[in-house]
Amino acid sequence: MTGRQRVLVTAGASGIGECLARAFDLEGARVHICDSDEQAVERMLAADRGSITGTIADVSDPDAVDRLFDDVSSVLGGLDVLINNAGIAGPIGPVEDISPDAWRRTIAVNLDGQFLCARKAVPLLKSAGGGCIINMSSTAGLGGCPNRSPYVASKWAIIGLTKTLAMELGIFGIRVNAICPGSVEGERIRRVMEADAEVLGKSVEEVHANYVAGNSMRTLIQPEEIASLVRFLCAESSSHITGQALSVDGHTETLRA
């Protein structure tokens, strides 16, 4: 890839996605985000004063994804990097208490959204002569996690999708990798901890302590660490890294809250 990278970050208006978008922007890339949170998109675009562009879109909606890529083509004139970051935590509880609707919604956002974006991005990446797709999985995609069956199932599936796309697209110079974060500091993991505490009958402080104790470094992960790895994987220096599921997790020992 030559010149300024053209980058799409899904769920790019907050959390890890916002950190990713800002990291690429600081490196001089042309960045477009999407997010289903209209207010968050408006706040981010206003704060960046035009250096980042955006579309309000729910990636689980095929029509919304079509509109998103119309915007990407119009605003960026093509694409070099797709970061499939959008995802939800899904319901928390034993499998017998998970409703079919909650299951389907988790799969729709976490897995279907990545498929829908990839199928629209690939023709643009081929036209660009190559590029990168980064799919956000999780350490939950490498092992089980009680009371998180929809989320875990979606994150395992993302790794299978990643490896398959790497096989399909390598001959076109398109590299596809998955990132498997551990528990990342921020509002989202706090909400998950609160839900876990309610299901388990524990305090939020107890759940937090168990999350921290769940990896060898006894710490939560910072979103900037995820952004650093993604930037490396989208650079020429990693030109032969593809089909990988790479953890940033302090070495997970247990996913049990």
Structure description:
By secondary structure, the chain is of the alpha/beta class. The model has no long low-confidence stretch (mean pLDDT 93). The radius of gyration is 18 Å and the shape is globular. Helix content is 47%, strand content 15%. The protein has 8 helices and 7 strands, in the order βαβαβαβαβαβαααβ. The longest helix has 28 residues, at 100-127.
Query: Number of helical segments?
Result: 8
Low-confidence stretches: none
- The CATH architecture of the largest domain is 3-Layer(aba) Sandwich
> Alpha-carbon distance between the termini?
43 Å
Helices and strands, in order, run as EHEHEHEHEHEHHHE
What is the count of β-strands? 7
State the secondary-structure class. Answer: alpha/beta
Tell me the strand order in the biggest sheet: 3-2-1-4-5-6-7
What is the name of the CATH superfamily of the largest domain? NAD(P)-binding Rossmann-like Domain
Helix content: 40-55%
Q: Bin the strand percentage.
A: 5-15%
Principal-axis shape: globular
Record the SSE blueprint.
Blueprint: E1 6-10, H1 15-26, E2 30-35, H2 38-48, E3 52-56, H3 62-76, E4 81-84, H4 100-127, E5 131-136, H5 149-169, E6 174-181, H6 187-200, H7 204-213, H8 223-233, E7 245-248
Parallel strand pairs: 1-2, 1-4, 2-3, 4-5, 5-6, 6-7
Helix pairs in contact: 1-8, 3-4, 4-5, 6-7
